[in-house]
Amino acid sequence: MLAIGEKQLVLKPQDLLVALKIAVNRGREFTLTELSTELNMAVSVVHGSIRRNEQARLVSRSAGNIRVMRSSLREFTIH
Question: Is the model's pTM score more than 0.70?
């Protein structure tokens, strides 16, 4: 149960698309601009998607690299 004032995280459909795009391209490091171009989305939409995916612990970012948390993403897509 959520505490008072705490908001529940809601993922958008494009969040799964962004996470899967990163996941299927192992070894490739994407910039937000590259993702936005290849997915035909605005950079701001991709940025928001990455942020929500981070909050859901489906991706992580460190030193500018975006990495998918494969076990979490697999579990999320199955259920």
Answer: yes
